[in-house]
Amino acid sequence: MYTAIGYAAQTPTSPLAPMTFQRRSPRPDDVAIDILYCGVCHSDIHQARNEWGIAVYPLMPGHEIIGRVTAVGDKVTAHKVGDLVGVGCMVDSCRTCEACAKDLEQYCLEGPTMTYATPDRVDGSNTMGGYSSSIVVSEHFVVRIPAGMDLPSAAPILCAGITTYSPLKHHGVGPGHKIGILGMGGLGHMGIKLAKALGAEVTLFTRSQAKAEEARRQGADHVIVSTDAEQMRAAAGRFDFLLDTIPVQHDLNPYLETLKFDGVHILVGLIEPIDPALHAANLVMKRRVLAGSLIGGIAETQEVLDFCAEHDIRCDIEMLDIRNINQAYERMIAGDVKYRFVIDMATLQG
Ligand code: NDP
Ligand code: ZN
């Protein structure tokens, strides 16, 4: 065991504050990592504040981790001391079920072990995430950072990138397809870049006209202001796919109407009951599909990192001093970040 420091919430209503805790000594298949950067995902806020009702305290968020390997267990072959590596949303799974066998560890039939607020499969301890000086993770759940990649702007690929890339790939989004990305935050802006790189025609649906020009700079071909009922009506029947990153309850019906027949609305932002209710006619009458998607498997996480390196896709980030993490949460909720905060972990020692 060795001592680590990080920022954690002690209750759903307490701000994140520094905490000293123990990380395990590496097991034979473990990689120990000194964390350099960690992105700040909206899921971190949902969890720190127990908005999904599954939080375990103390809760140390952070699942967009980039760091350097400092030690490896004797059975580790994939990574060595000094390597630059990444850790995303999961740190373990059963590894044998049907989903794990298909490299879909996120759908592990026993439930994956998430990077934070989940019991470790071996010792039962509560996992602690990447808002910390170090982390110890089984090598299978550690990915390689491609050579030459800008490190801070690559961190959000570990969640925002894979969460948008995985459904695009699964549904075969590419040339000839029209896709709408709903919401331009951390996930949404990566969704625009990735869908564009895959060859689709991309439209951003945003609440804010002010984001129109920036969306075009991200690669969007068109922008629809979702609060303008006229613009929404004019888009009826236009899209093959919608990728919905909106983190709060919203009416899906007007969006569904913008899909062609056989169109697919993919939810990634919501894991709560849908409210207001879906009008089933919006599905039935046009054979439309309402789908969901959870992050992505480890092999696919490596794939999206390599894809971003190859296409020079970077997240737009604002570097964050960890001492300002609580203000950063408020700014994210207000939509005041372009488009991902990334913690410079050197500020933990400051
Ligand atoms: P951000 O806060 O960075 O961005 C969310 C965007 O949604 C905003 O920028 C805004 O875009 C739009 N939005 C925010 N509030 C509203 C509102 N009241 N009505 C309509 N639109 C709104 O969040 P992230 O991108 O980090 O995360 C998005 C969601 O995805 C979160 O709920 C997160 O938990 C979830 N998530 C899901 C994953 C999965 O595996 N399925 C993995 C990771 C995250 P605009 O201003 O353009 O309208
Ligand atoms: Zn996330």
TrEMBL record:
Co-factor requirement: Zn(2+)
Enzyme Commission number(s): 1.1.1.194
InterPro entries: ADH-like_C, ADH-like_N, ADH_Zn_CS, CAD-like, D-isomer_DH_CS1, ER, GroES-like_sf, NAD(P)-bd_dom_sf
GO MF: alcohol dehydrogenase (NADP+) activity; coniferyl-alcohol dehydrogenase activity; zinc ion binding
CDD domains for this protein: CAD1
Domain Enoyl reductase (ER) positions: 11-343
Enzyme class, broadest EC rank: oxidoreductase
Keywords carried by this UniProt record: Metal-binding, Oxidoreductase, Zinc
Keyword flag Lyase: no
PANTHER family tied to this protein: ALDEHYDE REDUCTASE
Family: Belongs to the zinc-containing alcohol dehydrogenase family.
Descriptive protein name: Coniferyl alcohol dehydrogenase
Organism the protein comes from: Pseudomonas putida (strain ATCC 47054 / DSM 6125 / CFBP 8728 / NCIMB 11950 / KT2440)
